[in-house]
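During the no-cost extension, the postdoctoral fellow (Dr. R.K.) reprocessed legacy sequence entries with the updated structure-token encoder. One reprocessed record is reproduced below for audit purposes.
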Amino acid sequence: MALKSRSGRPPAVTAASAEAMALEALAFLAADEGRLGGFLGASGLSPADLPLAASDAAFLGGVLDFLLQDEALLEAFCAASDTNPEAPLRARALLPGATPW
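Re-encoded structure tokens follow.
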């Protein structure tokens, strides 16, 4: 989900696109056993919990929080998804539990 526009300015992020980005980030984490293990350890969830949790916008915010806390992980996600590196932070701000900056 590349958040880009033809004008060069980042497009507006909506709650729906923020959730979509978080789901893409969750899939990115799940695609690698090490990344998934780190996320599950931090979240306290089991792999069986993920399908139900993925329907909760607050959980999706937590997925982006996890991604944003590790610059190397964030860069890897952005490269893999052809996403502007600022987009996950903008998306996080639209999901429940975000801390205003």
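Helices lie at 15-30, 33-43, 50-53, 57-68, 71-81, 87-92. The radius of gyration is 13 Å. The remaining legacy entries will be reprocessed before the final report is submitted.
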